[in-house]
Amino acid sequence: NGVLAVEASDHLDGKASFSNFGANVFVAAPGLEILSTVHVRSGSLYLEYSGTSMACPVVAGVAGLVYAYYPGITVEEVFNRIVSTADNVDLHNKTDNVLGIGRVNALKALTLSTAKEAPYLIVSKTYYVNQDMKGTRVSVSPGEEVVLAFELRNNGKEATHVKLHVRSQNPLVEVVSSEVDFNDITDGQRMLSRNASLLKLSSKLPAGKVVKLTVKIEADAYSEERVVLLNVTQPNAVKKAIQVKTNKVAPVLTDLDRDGKQDVLFTGLLKNEEMDVTKLMMAINGEGEDLPG
């Protein structure tokens, strides 16, 4: 539909602390301390501003360059050039694996001969699931086994024989089964894995720890490494549920209790042991603890 969702990144190619995020984000662009023109009564001056309102114009500027460089190019072609030529910055991102395809690269958007020469796959979502791949969980805790399913998004040439391999460098997180299989993924398609990876978390793993997992995505004539973060919470930090289905609204990071730290706000459907369905809006802090109210 021509809408390109943009996230703000910081000086280190990580997600800016103030930026929203989600699976619908396609690219990131610098949005922290950006020099901007300001008009005041006494004249004009330059000031630094931060926000997604500074990141979006960067992407709009890249789009303008592409239009100028390729007269007659279509909206879809501009979209594909911006998204498919973005730099993968997952390995530099210390906050979350939600920067979309990556940070925009104006030079690549102008000079790449075609934006669809190969597949371009990212992990758009991860799910803590049950063994049968049907129900999902809200959180994971030390000492538990974690069944981790993945959703991939392709913004390039059709990807065939797609596999994903999970690797952990944390000795307290054992990858029991690492290979995850997918059906072929066409351009613009999202695909949930056919199976899941099994992890064992040591009881010695500190609650509140963010574990970085490396995932290697492979397909015919394609290989890429990306990063997924596993957030380990306090045991029983989130209300027990047999099945939780999150809706299409992405979780929101915000400082709800005004303590200077980011909290997670999310919604979903919860089924209890009597199979009663409740619509939920839940919030947890960085340590995985429920926030009151």
Would you give an account of this structure?
The chain is mainly beta and 293 residues long. It has 3 helices and 19 strands. Strands 6, 7, 8, 10, 12 and 13 form a 6-stranded antiparallel β-sheet that branches. It has a 4-stranded antiparallel β-sheet with strand order 11-9-14-15, with no helix packed on it. Strands 16, 17, 18 and 19 form a 4-stranded antiparallel β-sheet that branches. The longest helix is centred in the first third of the chain and has 18 residues, at 52-69. The protein is globular, with a radius of gyration of 20 Å.
**What helical percentage do the residues reach?**
10-25%
Radius of gyration: 20 Å
Structural class: mainly beta
Q: Please trace the helix and strand order, writing H or E for each element.
A: EEEEHHEHEEEEEEEEEEEEEE
Care to count the β-strands? 19
Alpha carbon gap, first and last residue: 38 Å
Q: What is the molecular shape?
A: globular
Give a quick account of the main beta sheet: strands, pairing sense, barrel closure: 6 strands, antiparallel
**What are the low-pLDDT stretches, counting only 5+ consecutive residues below 50?**
237-249, 270-277
Put simply, the count of helices is 3
Q: Percent of residues in beta strands?
A: 35-45%
Mean pLDDT: 78
